[in-house]
């Protein structure tokens, strides 16, 4: 069943779909009277299931069929910070990280980033937020991750319970335990941030500065992962440690 996010709470048992939602539900999916969909309410905790009961001025009128709650979000507030990479890699990471449960995504330019957004940053971030919305609907999330941009690591502000930086030198040195140790220490309502470099990685100077700011360098297994793979590996590990390893 298709899922959408509502910005306003329906005032009665019937409501009119917002224009953008109506376009997708009716025009793209070709829904008709009797078609059902799920809608996440603005509190991002409750879901209503509603069906099309009639059309008014070509806009569908929905009737609430049932209400429910779901528990699908990661129990810790999760941020990934990714060094700006080439091509469509940011789009891929935003889409897949949303499916894996991330809450915040920050794109940051680092010393070895080979592309620079400059004045294009606002347009790029608008597109990435649309991708996050679509991915959250597809994954039946209750929250839509927010995607933002920071021009440099010096401007980055992170206030999380646990702050980790993926560092390939840690992997080369055989460090395998720090990631799991840090994640095992998380408790409900804690927060965690992961920072990843772009294709060329992070410089040792950048890692040293991040360590001064409370980041812990961690390896992501014995293999060197691509820039777009590392965030997905870390999020999968987080899900296993705090959701599946019971």
UniProtKB/TrEMBL annotation:
It is found in: Cytoplasm. Its EC number is 2.1.1.193. GO terms for cellular component: cytoplasm. InterPro entries: Alpha/beta_knot_MTases, RsmE, RsmE_MTase_dom, tRNA_m1G_MTases_N. It catalyses: uridine(1498) in 16S rRNA + S-adenosyl-L-methionine = N(3)-methyluridine(1498) in 16S rRNA + S-adenosyl-L-homocysteine + H(+). Residues 73-238 form the Ribosomal RNA small subunit methyltransferase E methyltransferase domain. GO terms for biological process: rRNA base methylation. Its main location: cytoplasm. Gene3D superfamilies: 3.40.1280.10. Pfam families: Methyltrans_RNA (PF04452). It is an enzyme of class 2 (transferase). The keyword Signal does not apply. Keywords: Cytoplasm, Methyltransferase, rRNA processing, S-adenosyl-L-methionine, Transferase. GO terms for molecular function: rRNA (uridine-N3-)-methyltransferase activity. CDD domains: RsmE-like (cd18084). Belongs to the RNA methyltransferase RsmE family. Specifically methylates the N3 position of the uracil ring of uridine 1498 (m3U1498) in 16S rRNA. Acts on the fully assembled 30S ribosomal subunit. This is Ribosomal RNA small subunit methyltransferase E.
